[in-house]
Write a structure and sequence with these properties.
Layout: H1 6-12, E1 36-40, H2 46-53, E2 62-66, H3 69-77, E3 83-87, H4 90-93, E4 97-107, E5 114-118, E6 128-132, H5 137-149, E7 155-159, H6 163-167, E8 172-176, H7 179-182, E9 189-192, H8 193-201, E10 205-213, H9 217-220, H10 225-233, H11 236-247, H12 251-261, E11 262-265, H13 268-283
Parallel strand pairs: 1-2, 1-3, 6-7, 6-8
Antiparallel strand pairs: 3-10, 4-10, 4-11, 5-8, 5-9
Length: 297
Amino acid sequence: MVALASGASRLVGLERGVVGGMRAIGRYEEQANVPRIGASSYLNTAPLIWSFVHGARAGAVQLTTDAAPARCADLLARGAVEAALMPVIEYQRLPEVVLVSDACVGARTEVRSVVLVTRCATLREVRTIALDESSRTSAALVQIIFREFLGREPRTEATQPDVHAMLSEHDGALIIGDPAMTFARAGLYVHDLARLWREHTGLGFVFALWMAHEHAASSVRAVDFAAARDEGLAHTEEIIAQYEAELGLPRAELRTYLHDNLCFELNAEMRAGLELYFQLAHKHGLAPAARTLQWLT
């Protein structure tokens, strides 16, 4: 999440932000005594933040968006926001955070926007992987898949998310978000990480959840993130219209992505997948703990 991505700019009715900077949504900058929240500007988060920009909760929060989910974690860690839509791995790395809602970004079978791209026909041929530096949950998931399920440990390196540049020096490239849906695929093998997880575990996968600092309970408790999600999902046609030109993908494909590929509720199956992910991340040294889910009270 570095600057406001143009898709997010359409969502909030603003121009693209300054490259390299991070800015709050302009209309909220003058408001005081409202919670500050952060979220990625990818299409997969749009239903979760639409209400805060265009819907019933416009003005209820000060929203900061960015194109890289990892920087949402940084915002929360340094106290720049009270709540953020966080890569789930950060729940185990930041012990002072709690979960605030069952609204999430996940996938039951195939996510489409988190992929490992290779020039090798099989994953067992992969020796080195370039990891999209904007990712943390997905970077850990790649390592879990190789270590736990394939019995291999390719060398990994965090890089800028340019799939063809990544593959010029590595056997595989992890790409997330909108770029994972739009790159040229000719001559490449594309492995959907949610599908790989499902094949090996039989469970869905959760990529991001709303989290908050424990000390921010009083201000964050008033924000109904689940209702915001429900309102956003009721307006997906408007969201699709805003992202269609940005991504250059057909409306029907974007509709399938939002309604069929993605899951926005942490139900029992998704929670089981999340808890298993935490256990395996801890087992393989990718998280310092595997603490149980704690909710804002």
